[in-house]
Each structure stands twice: as C-alpha cells, then as structure tokens.
Amino acid sequence: MDSSNQGYIGRSVTRLEDRPLVTGAGRFVADIDFSHQLHMRVVRSAHAHGIIRSIDLDAAKAMLGVRAIWTFTDIADIPPIPFRATTVQGLEPYRQPILADEFVRYVGEPVAAVFADNAFIAEDAAELVSVDIEERPPVLSAQHDPGEFAPGLGTEPTTIVKTYGDLDAAMAQAHGSIALTLEVGRHSGVPLETRGAVARYDAATDMLELHGAAKRPHWNRDQIAEMIQRAPSSIQLFEYHVGGGFGVRGEIYPEDILVCLAALRLRRPVKWVEDRREHLMATNHSREQTHLIRAGFDADGRILAIDNEFYHDQGAYVRTHGARVVDMTTSLLPGPYRIPAYRAVGHFRLTNKTPAATYRAPGRFETSFVRERVVDAVAAQLGIDPVEIRRRNLISKDEMPFARPMDALDTPVEFDSGDYAGLLDKALTAFDWNARRADIERRRSSGEAVGAGIAMFVEKSGLGPVDTVRVSVDTAGAVEIVTGSSSVGQGMETVIAQICAETLGVDYRNIRVIRGQTNRIEFGFGTHASRVTVMTGEATRVAAEKVKKKALGVAAEMLQISAAALELRDGCVIRQDSETAIPLGDIARNLGPTSRFSREREPGLSADGWHRTDHMTYPYGVHAAVVRVDRETGGVAVENYLVAYDVGRAVNPMLVEGQMLGGLAQGLGGALLEEFRYDEQGTPLSVTFADYMIPTAREMPKVEILITEDAPSPLNPLGLKGAGEGGVNPVGAVIAAAIDDALGMPGAITRLPATPQRLRALMSSAPDRRTARRLAGDGD
Q1: Do residues 429 and 473 both lie within one domain?
Q2: Please, which of 439, 519, 522, 619 could form a disulfide with 721 given CB 3.0 to 4.6 Å?
Q3: Where are the alpha helices (DSSP H) in 75-140?
Q4: Average model confidence (pLDDT) across the chain
Q5: Are residues 419 and 637 in contact, defined by beta-carbon separation less than 8 angstroms?
Q6: Domain range for residue 492?
Q7: Pairing between strand 620-629 and 636-646?
C-alpha cells in the first residue's frame, strides 16, 4: 500500500487486529495460565427463591486436591458489588453479594466457591457441596404486584418518570387514538467466549493482577480496590483478545471478586472460566419489558401525544448498571419523530430470574419495537401508507439541533444533526422499495405469505464526559498510542490508528495501540455506549496534533526556518520548498532528556490528548426487510434486508459495515429466536443451545448496507458518530411489520420473539381456518 499523499480517515484499510487471530496467535482469557495456579468452581443455587438453611462442605473438603471452599461467612467483610452507571437513589440495598447470604434469589446465584489444584477436581468437589434451601414462591413476572425483596424492602426499588408537554390536552384534541400492549422477550448477548478471570498476587511487589475482559478497566480496578480494601495503585488489570462483549461481558461480577480474594488469601494464582450453561443462567440478561402504550394523532396521522407505562423485569438484583436501561427506555422512545407531548412511566421491578443489565442497544431495541408498532398502528387505522406516516412525523433537518426537554444518562437529549427524511429517501431507493412492493403483490397472488416492513430510529453514541490518550513517537519512528479504552473485537485499534495516522502523516501500520492495561495509563473510561470512535478518537486527534506541533517546532529550529514551511508526510517532517526530510525518529532522538531541544520543552516526542463533551452524538438509520412466512410451520425466512445508517463520518467504512452485519444478526435473534424461558418454579429452561436458539449463517438474509455521511456531528472536529449499535436497534420492529404485512394482519405481532409456535397460534386464532388462510395470503 502506498500511503503517500493519502489520508486514512474514510478508507477501508485492513484491520491491525487480525494477524494474530488468523494465524492462531490470539490470546484469550482461557489461554492465560500461571505456575501453581488453582482453579475455581462456583456452586450455584438450584432454586429460584429460598432461605439457606445449611451448606454441608465436609465431603467436598475431603477430596484430594481441594485447597479451600468458601461460603458467605468466609467473605462477609466484602461489600456487595457497586454501581457504575446510575444516579437513581435508593438502589443500594438491592446490590448483589458475591456469595449468597441468607437468601437465594435466582437459579444460578453463587452460593459457594471451590478452589482446587485443577478444574476437574474443582468441578467434582462442587458437586459434593450440599446446600439445604427452604423454598419460597418465586416472583416471575414484573407485572405482578410488588412483593418483598427482604424485610422492609419491596421488589420495586424505583419508578422512573419522564414527561414533557401537555399530554391531557393533546389527547383531548386528537382525531383518533390507539392503545397497545407490547412485549419484548428476555434475551441477551451470547458471545463465542464465555466469561473468565485469572488473578495473580505477586508478594514481592505487593501487586494484584486481574486478567480478563473489562469494559471499564480503570473503574473496575478502582472498585475492586475499594471492595477488598487495597490501594488502586496496587492492582493492575489486563485485557487480551475478547471473543465478543456486547455489553454483558467486562462488568464486575461476583466471580471477579472471588478470584482476586482467593489469589490474595491463598497466595496462588486462581483461574475461573465459566461453561456455556453457567453463562446462559448467570451472565447478565436483558430486554424483558411489557409496555402499555397509547397515542393520540390528528386526521393526517401526525402523532400528538404518547403515554407509555411499562414494566421492566430486572431479575433478582440490581447490578452495576443500576437503572440505566429503564432510564434510556423512558428517554429515547420518541426516536426521530416530533411527538409534542409525552409521558413515560417505567416500573423497575425485581423478579426471581437472572439479574439483567445492558445488551447492545439497551433500551433502544425495546423502544424502537414499541414506537414503530405505534406508528404502524396509526397508519393502519387511518389507511395511510407506512412510509408516508413516518415522513409526516419526522423531525426536519432545519430543526437541528433538536432538543427534547428530557435527559438520558444524565445528559440532555439534544439531537446534534440529522436529515432523517433524506436518509429515508435514499433507503427506499437503495432497497428499490416500490419494485419490491410490486413483486410482493405478484407473489401473494400465487399463494405466498410474503411481506415487507420498514422502521426508522435514532441511536445515541459518544457518551462523555471525557476521554484521554497518550501518543508518543520513539527513536525508530514507531508511534504508540496508549488508551484506557478496551477492545471487544470492534476494530478500535485500527480506527484509532487511522485517526492518528491522518494527523501525523505516518503509515497506520506503523502505529501500535495499547489498550486494556491499567498500568500503562493513569485514567481510562473504557469501551461502552458506542463511545470509542467519538471520544477516544477525538482525544487521539488532539494528542496527535500536539505531537505534530512539537515535531514541526523542533524541525523548524533544526533547519532554522519557519514551522509554516514544513509539513508531516510519510513519517517525516518535510521542507516544502526543497523536499528536505527529517524522520520523526530523528526528531524523537533530538528530544532526549539531555538534548538542547528539550531545554524549553518536555523531553520526548509525546503528548496527552483530552476530549470533553456535555452531549452525546446521535446517528440515525432506516431498516427495511422482506420476509416469507411458512403457513404450516410458522417459520419466518428473512429474504432481503437493508440497513441504511448515517454515521456522521466513517473512519473505516468496512468496519462500520461489519458492525451493522453483526448487530443485524443479534437483532434477528431477538426478533425471531432467542428467549430465556422459565418454568413455574423459576428454573431456567434455556441453558443449552438446544433450547436457547441463536441465528446461524442459514438464518442470515441477503443484506444491503448503505452508509451515509450527510450529517457530521458538530460536537467534534471530525464529525464522528458511533456505529456499534445501529445494526441491532430497529430489527425487531422491522421484522414485526414485515410479518404483519405477510399475514395481512395489521398489528398482529405484539410480542418478540415471533417464534414459529406463536405465529401458528396467531394464524389459528383467526375466526376460522378459511379466514386465517386468506389473511395469510392463500386466497379463497
């Protein structure tokens, strides 16, 4: 690749991350081993709700190779896991202890931890631990009246209310109204790599190391330090390759604290890797909500008001995200539409299920389904085309920035830029919407149950308030970027290197990005909320600009000319009038501590960059799909799919497309297949891939991706917006609309996932079989 005179931002260059992965040199947490390490196995509750009467450890302790077994009494001095992402008050009593105390509250809750010489002994010993639990009736629905969590504490820790406008007046003036009950099933991220953690204590340096995935390495370090009463500087976190994160991995879980404590107390490294069954019943769940929503609209289909009361099933405890999902659900439901009056009441309720938290596009997958179902219902009631009803309600580009009198994640909701109608037009053209509609009608006449759906959405990204990196150039001219962000496989090293290469005029392949190591940088803010490209990227640009200015200044002094006569290109400072070139490595050498060029400057060709913001950025998109329903089996085949997404400015379009495809696959899972189910006793029924169905390559449709850059963000100089969650956000809404259309039953899909069993029941519930077949497109 010739990098001369070519910028890197906007180019689909090859990922830096891939060589070790495709050559088998990748290192995941299961690959981390230390001499004399112990293996931990967690004994988990087999009951959804009950009182612990006794735990018999005798048989397990008698096994050769078992070094310790802990219950709550052994770690009673350790506080419950803290929150990292909530300002909602009153949630502290609902935090999860690292081992169950008096009560167990979900199947899979850690009750005891076994430490043994190898994983096989640990597993065998764990099976010998006998836990006597007096069962109590489980609470399995967030819509039931709140019960008792603990003496004096109910199972509704909080209710979040967001409102603006005169709702009652708007509803009174409405030409018509609709009321819907809509449900999103319980599902979550299922990465290829399950959770794992390896802890090691070095007594010689009094340093505790934790190896494994961490979305927020520095925050995790600081909270672990506080929980186990150590100085943060005496703990180091290390992240390696990560086989998928999706919001569910990298938070602090009970197991992370247990391995750290064990390494300290037992003076041996401790390793834990969960199996798939553990993952499906113990790692964060998400999504499960029921919405009772009504909307008022005028005769032209313009929505005047939305009133939404919903019930969020949080599971057994409030984990690190606090009430974050409910907060985003209440704040972001209106999406790209004007909606003059609005009220949302979110009931945050605990049940005896696996605790819930964030999963890719938390609160937006749910709200896009609910909002777009409402829009489709208004269109059906008035007999207006679904595309046209959306167009009439869209916020216009002339209204940007568009502020709503609400906040999300303690940040004012203000859409920074956007041309929603423009993207809708581009999407319709790219998908050849009119031709597809005509083809659908032709196919229906021959008996097929086929239909199309469309949905629009606004994403949030670039969550602040701050980020920082350090950029340095060594004497060989190699560039190093150290960041407190982490990588979950999204290609962040490549994107950050591209931004730096653009500024410094170097080959991006000559840049090393160091991430996920708390010993290399003092501050770090992690990888979450689609923030890395926006926040870390802009901090990188700032630091690189400082390095550039410093390099030009030193070169100007060396050449005795003005810095304005110099430029950075091909890893050198170049004199424009003579092409005299000084390699950046030579400039770094001349900035050594004893150099005369360092007398008035900090030694080294390096700089820190900071980016601060009070607002998020808001990318937006349009999805459309064509589906075919099998009337006999209820199966849904997604034949074609379009993702149109405006990312402000795409640093690497190929990586943006990859994010869209990955998100779409997860969205299809939640729309059609994935659901955590429980029996009447609260026992999980979806703890293997035979019962928890995830999409495979066979379920993926032909996908068209349209990435646009029509609305760069004014909040950062590069115009960047995030891309991590736009592929999953509206998928449930699109598939629901397409199934409705295929069946000829407007508003039929009110619950996700739309499984074959549910669709068969839906079709059979029509007044008679003949009507059902007619509605499905089979004629008389």
Answers
A1: no
A2: 619
A3: 119-128
A4: 95
A5: no
A6: 18-26+463-612
A7: antiparallel
